[in-house]
Amino acid sequence: MRTIFNADVSNSTLKDVISEEQNKGRRTMSLVTLVVVAGFIIAALVGLFDREATRTAEASGQSVEVEYQSVARAGNEVELEIRVSSQNPLPKQLTVYLTEEYMKFFEDLAVFPDPESQTADGEGTVAFTLSAPKNARETVIRITGRASDQWDFHTPGIIQVQSGLEKIEIPVVTWRVP
Questions:
Q1: Do residues 96 and 112 make contact, with C-beta atoms less than 8 angstroms apart?
Q2: Are 172 and 105 in contact (CB under 8 A)?
Q3: Cα 22 from chain centre
Q4: Which of 142, 163, 134, 178 lies closest to 64 in space, CA to CA?
Q5: Which of these, 106, 143, 157, 159, could form a disulfide with 80 (CB 3.0-4.6 Å)?
Q6: Nearest CA to 73 among 153, 171, 158?
């Protein structure tokens, strides 16, 4: 039986230090971990994980800018902002078209300002007809709601804005995270 009085005690405090060859795997894993963390930080700084995106299209002196959620989580508030501007005063009515697939992305959908009419065609496109302010060169349309619980990895859609005879189309994609 060993006791404290007959135990074998080493005189060196460095007995448990391992050699450089034995430590090579640990150093490699530390370096790999550091590179992965640095990669995530750089990706975030570049904007790879941005939650909002902006798309712009122009035609015949009119410009449509759509600001939308590029990444959303089910149940979170989602806003789609459509800014229509023109060199000349806007016509009395604007029509905003949303594809059915992108409409299903929203729950508790609300459109501001309130549309004068809402129609749907047989192909799954919903049209909101709105009045533009008198002699305005710019107006903003907001569509808000909650991201639906329906699970799709991404939801593509097409937003079209008709101002007078001109119809401007902007494709959008919103990715979902759990």
A1: no
A2: no
A3: 46
A4: 163
A5: 143
A6: 153
R_g of the chain computed on alpha carbons: 29
Which residues of 22-153 form beta strands (DSSP E)?
Answer: 52-59, 62-69, 71-73, 77-86, 93-99, 106-112, 117-120, 125-131, 138-147
User: Which residues have CB under 8 Å from 140's CB, separation 6+?
Assistant: 81, 82, 83, 84
Which positions of the chain have pLDDT values less than 50?
Answer: none
pLDDT digits (tens, 9 = 90+) for 115-159: 999 998 888 899 999 998 888 999 999 999 998 887 678 889 999
Residue 3: predicted pLDDT: 76
State the pLDDT at residue 127.
92
Question: For the whole model, what pTM was predicted?
Answer: 0.73
How many whole angstroms separate alpha carbon 121 and alpha carbon 164? 20
